Amino acid sequence: MELLTRGRQAETDYYAILGVDPNANSEEIKRAYHRMAFQYHPDRHQDSEEAHIRMKELNEICAILTDPIRRREYDIPRGYGIRVPKFRRGTKVRINNNSPSSYRGYIGLVDEEPTKDTFRFWYRVKIEARGLTNVGRFAEEELEKAQD
Asked: Which range marks the domain in which residue 54 is found?
């Protein structure tokens, strides 16, 4: 049964069903979902089995495309490979404990827009440490959003 489901999902383009671009953010996806849900909601079509099936499909699509991990799992096999940076210029970030940098635990500001290679985004972060301002290059997984 699971293989049949996977085959169906591989053929189904969730973005086309919602009428959004694969680069759409979660807010655009939610708006498209609400527009479609209003159209197919079972309360509006109580006698229609097709509307019930369509609504279940829309709920599944919204759940997958608004969850970053599930969306990535959906996108990569289909060749979308969309990745958007977690942080923009001016974002306050903390260098996490997994970083090989000597600035682990320090807080800094993203100095410029990130660059992307095949696997990840790279950020230049301005760090105030020991009375000096340093700019270091960090991979996306080395950073986390700093709490204000």
From this structure: 2-78
Contact criterion met (CB below 8 Å) for 89 and 111: yes
Both 14 and 51 in one domain: the answer is yes
Looking at the fold, whether 124 and 74 belong to one and the same domain comes out as no
Amino acid at 134: N
Distance CA 123, CA 138 (A): 5
pLDDT tens track, the chain, 148 positions: 333 344 444 568 898 999 998 878 888 999 999 999 888 887 887 778 888 888 899 999 999 998 888 887 888 777 675 567 888 899 999 999 888 888 899 999 999 989 888 777 899 999 988 788 889 899 888 898 888 6
DSSP 127: E
Nearest partner of 16 among 5, 3, 2, 29, judged by Cα: 29
Give the SS3 label for residue 121: strand
